């Protein structure tokens, strides 16, 4: 690919003696599979997508929204499940790095297994970890249950912050949005569900 010395990767196709550096593989149209035997293939012997599909005119990458061209190629990949989602190789690789193994799926049809298998075969590296957006704690608050009474007048002697799991001051979350709580309507109406005024 680059013409320099010391390539450590050799094409796995029997009889092919082409070698390349791992960082040069993408530039040269080579495919390295990051699973199983970790095989690598040169630009002539790399796996091709078996899906019989061609992008319609003016089809764009679902990730960057730039045109994908008029056919499948090394740099243009289609989802094998829906056959409507087209991506640039670089775009879907970035998506895979951020999503990780547990959340990587087709952004269009949400297919997981078939999509993941095809992308791995085509040389997309998917790290075996959770999504990167969970690492920094940015969305940690989304996993916390609402825990205060939002009634206009809270009747609880312990105040709005007191929330029992059972009993007379059980906090009921809105059965539609779960974004508001109330333990005062429970006392008035003795109900097991409650809906906030917004819903």
UniProtKB/TrEMBL annotation:
Start and end residues of each PHD-type domain: 1-46
Protein name stated in the entry: G2/M phase-specific E3 ubiquitin-protein ligase
Transmembrane segments: none
GO molecular function: zinc ion binding
GO cellular component: nucleus
Keywords, sorted A to Z: Metal-binding, Zinc, Zinc-finger
Organism, scientific name: Cathartes aura (Turkey vulture)
Pfam families xref list: PHD_G2E3, zf-HC5HC2H
Domain RING-type residue range list: 61-110
């Amino acid at each position: 690919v680059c013409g320099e010395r010391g390539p450590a990767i050799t094409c796995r196709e029997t009889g092919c003696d082409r070698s390349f550096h791992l960082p040069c593989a993408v530039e040269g149209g080579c495919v390295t599979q990051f699973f199983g035997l970790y095989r690598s293939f040169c630009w002539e012997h790399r796996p091709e997508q078996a899906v019989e599909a061609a992008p319609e005119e003016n089809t764009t990458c679902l990730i960057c929204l730039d045109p994908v061209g008029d056919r499948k190629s090394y740099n243009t990949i289609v989802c094998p499940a829906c056959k409507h989602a087209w991506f640039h190789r670089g775009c879907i690789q970035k998506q895979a790095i951020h999503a990780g193994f547990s959340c990587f799926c087709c952004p269009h049809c949400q297919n997981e297994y078939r999509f993941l298998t095809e992308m791995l075969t085509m040389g997309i590296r998917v790290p075996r970890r959770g999504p990167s957006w969970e690492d920094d704690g940015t969305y940690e608050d989304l996993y916390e249950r609402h825990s205060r009474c939002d009634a206009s007048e809270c009747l609880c002697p312990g105040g709005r912050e007191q929330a029992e799991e059972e009993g007379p001051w059980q906090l009921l979350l809105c059965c539609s949005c779960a974004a508001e709580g109330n333990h005062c309507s429970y006392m008035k109406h003795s109900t097991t569900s409650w809906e906030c005024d917004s819903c």
